[in-house]
Amino acid sequence: MRIMFVGAAHEVTGSCTLIEAAGKKILVDCGMEQGIDLYENRPLPIAPADVDCILLTHAHIDHSGKIPLMTARGFKGKIYATDATVKLCEIMLLDSAHIQEQEAKWQTRKALRRGEEEVTPLYTVEDAERSLDQFRGCSYNSSYDIYEGISIRFIDAGHLLGSSSIEITLTENGVKRVLLFSGDIGNVNRPLIRDPQKPEKADIVIIESTYGTRVHPPRRDYKSQLADICQRTFDRGGTVVIPSFAVGRTQELLFLLREIKEEGLIKHHDGFPVWVDSPLSVAATNIYDGGMEEYYDEETLAIISEGRDVLKFPDLKLSVTTDESRAINFDEKPKVIISSSGMCEAGRIRHHLKHNLWKPENTVLFVGYQAEGTLGSKLIGGADEIKLFGELIHVNARIEQMDGISGHADRDMLLDWLRNLKTPPMHVFVNHGSDTVTDMFAEQITAALGFVAEAPYSGGTYDLETLACLDEGNKVKFEKTVPKTVRVSTVFERLVNAGKRLMVVIEHNRGGANKDLAKFADQIDALSNKWDR
Fold first, then answer.
1. pLDDT of residue 21
2. How far apart (Å, rounded) are the C-alpha atoms in residues 432 and 211?
3. How far apart are CA 93 and CA 122, in angstroms?
4. Are residues 247 and 112 located together in one domain of the fold?
5. With contact defined as beta carbons under 8 Å apart, do 169 and 21 qualify?
6. pLDDT at 175
7. Is the separation of the CB atoms in 46 and 501 below 8 Å?
8. DSSP strand pairing (385-388 vs 316-319)
9. Degrees (nearest 5) of the Cα angle 358, 360, 366?
10. If DSSP states are collapsed to H, E and C, what string results for 165-232?
């Protein structure tokens, strides 16, 4: 039994961990990296075709975003997740694939003008569609025996609709280990979803540390805070632009804005429009608003029992087409625009920033975590000007941030979550946090709880029986660059993985009829002769 940390090691995004036990190879999450890359991630030591299954904590792209790539490169196993996560991935992975294809087309046009090669998307919509067939929905608090010697259980992480911590029980050669992956643990007392469920047992814990060194400020009333920001902006004749994660945060904002309108908390601007400008946000809102009672908190269930809408209200406008999106900024009436992406790295929000950042009457309101190096973090950090679509935009709008609305647990909440374990775990691994935060939170766990804790690096590999470190991983930082060869190397990596997949197929045909094997060998020889340069 062993564990290898691949992604989100001394970094916040790109969650991915490999477990080898009972003759099986299992990935926990398979996420995409966002923001600055401080350490070069070690590649998976096995071909995607050799991965038996994937366990997914939740649908956010930094946890799920590379699943279609795995499928494209030969992964054929099942993907276990909660039913709500499966529904959200149906829209999120297709949206991600569409972005990959559009970005590749745009980069290809630029490349061809320079006389360079075409750019291949990381994966396609077809890849994403095929990956969706591999998902298997699970319920909270039910045990699933997925292989001999391996069972899993999902518990509510309170971070996103369907988000989970995953308890994995491994038995091999008479040795039993219970691993607990926290996933992203949610903040408490948030709209719509329940607070995180606390675990009771684990031999080894892998815990996130997004806010591992921070404590959320004293909680302000989200509703009053949002109403006040809108009131002041509307009184100036301005628009409130909210970069928001399409899934989770957008729906929380709609819940609050519905209450603000129902209670008349904004004066003299009756009927102000609220635009949700993102096809993904619109699709996610429809999922949240339909048949998700299993995942809601008591307050939300009470609203539904009264026959009231949870997320819909008068003057809510849903923008899907690009023409609808463009028209929003030609309307000078005070309004709210909610658009993705939440860190301003892509999507329609960048167009809204271009049209609104330079106007002093407007407000850009941040309501979520901003990874270091993202456009969102630069604006919060006080940037005077930014570049969008090749144009320099001066920042005259007010930049504000809502206090305490984070979807992540803070340091004290994380410690409290660990404290609920009935007996001390043998070891705690800290991941999914920025470079210094992971180490500092590991030290805090030991100081506050007495648990043995450390923050592994990408490639860090440990024996799950003895907890001996087999590989310390990559501790060398690098300044990320994008050389011209990156596209070639990415395509070559696909070729290498195709070769590994071919070897798996060959092994699967061991014992086949000699006639069929000879034909297969002839086909491989012909292909090799064609490409042997």
1. 98
2. 10
3. 12
4. no
5. no
6. 96
7. no
8. unpaired
9. 80
10. EEEEEEEECCEEEEEEECCCCECCCCCCECCCCCCCCCCEEEEECCECCCCCCCCCCHHHHHHHHHHH
Q: How many structural domains is the chain composed of?
A: 3
Asked which of 351, 366, 401 is the last residue of a domain, the reply is 401
Establish if 476 belongs to a structural domain. Answer: no
User: Which helix (H) or strand (E) segment is 33 a member of?
Assistant: none
Measured between alpha carbons, how far is residue 521 from residues 245, 503, 517, 527 in Å? 50, 12, 6, 10
Q: Is 448 domain-assigned?
A: yes
Please give the Cα distance from 63 to 183 (Å, whole number). Answer: 9
How do residues 430-466 score in pLDDT, each as one tens digit? 999 999 999 999 999 999 999 999 999 999 999 999 9
What is the model's pLDDT at position 358?
Answer: 96
Give the number of other Cβ atoms within 10 Å of residue 218's Cβ.
7
pLDDT digits (tens, 9 = 90+) for 183-199: 999 999 888 999 999 99
Structure confidence by residue, pLDDT tens digits, 468-506 = 999 999 998 876 543 333 333 345 555 665 675 676 677
Tell whether 269 and 355 lie within a shared domain.
yes
- Asked if residue 415 and residue 395 are part of one domain, the reply reads no
Q: How far apart are CA 338 and CA 343, in angstroms?
A: 13
Nearest C-alpha neighbor of 202 from the set 413, 423, 374, 520: 423
Question: Of 401, 434, 451, which one is at a domain's C-terminal end?
Answer: 401
The answer on 415 and 457 residing in a single domain is yes
Judgement on whether residues 390 and 450 belong to the same structural domain of the protein = no
pTM: 0.85
On whether both 238 and 354 belong to a single domain, the answer is yes
Mean pLDDT score of the chain: 91
- What is the extent of the structural domain holding 273? 222-401
Same domain, 119 and 165: yes
Q: What are phi and psi of 93, to 5 degrees?
A: -75, -35
First to last CA, the chain: 42
Residue 156 domain flag: yes
Cα dihedral 526→527→528→531 (10° resolution): 120
pLDDT value of position 136: 98
CATH number at residue 184: 3.60.15.10
In a domain, 463, yes or no: yes
Cα gap 225→238, rounded to integer Å: 17
* Residues 317 and 462 placed together within one structural domain of the fold: no
**Single-letter amino acid code for the residue at 83:** D
